[in-house]
Amino acid sequence: MRIFFSGTHRSGKTTLGMTLAAGMEMKFIPTNISDILKNHNVVNPFSAKHEFSLILERQRKIKDHIKNLITENDNAIFDRCIYDVDMYSVYYLGKVINKMPEYEKRYYSDVANNEMENDYIDNDEFMFIIQPGIEFVHDNNKLHESPSSQHFINSIFLTFVDHLPKDKYCVMPRSCINLQDRIAFCMDTIDRIGLK
What we know:
Elements: E1 2-7, H1 13-24, E2 27-29, H2 34-39, H3 48-72, E3 76-78, H4 82-97, H5 102-114, E4 125-130, H6 147-159, E5 169-171, H7 179-193
Parallel strand pairs: 1-3, 1-4, 2-3, 4-5
């Protein structure tokens, strides 16, 4: 069994995943993508097409990294999944496509859409989508912008949930704003759907 916590940067995925894993006696697997982000930071691209290709390369590396972690670890809880990478690709690549001339937008939109996965969750897996709450702290990392940007990215996460099997995910309500509430929600959901 694998459990994934999905959601925007600084929404509390890692804290919640670590705590739940300890309580359920499961492995916790941090995805640790900061080194990939640091080594593939998109700085001073000379065109929108160049920026697009740099972001695409970075997102592919993150996706490959997470896929490897998933393959190597069973009976574990993860603080990200492939769905996260694709949702951030929608955000980052969409911003770049908007800078392009109209005659290029269609082609690059198709390229971005083709990067999306067909299947995000296997039979023995479950995903919790965590919405931004009180944990958001602006860390001055240029890759992640303001709280308002995080809420916009959260709307992308929620827009694409139709790509997920309905019995394999749930969206944590915004009313769960502290760790105790979030743990209780997760445990109730796990008991209800028989994940143990």
